[in-house]
Amino acid sequence: MNSFHAVAIPTEVADSVRSTMKSPKYGFPAHREVAAGRALCRHCLELVRLNEEQLILFTMDAFHGVPNGETVPPSPGPVYIHADSCGRYEPGSGIPEAYRGRLLTLEAFGEDKKLVAEVRASNSQEEKIAHELFANPEVNYIQVRSTEAGCYLFRLERN
Question: Would the pLDDT of 67 be above 70?
Answer without folding.
Answer: no
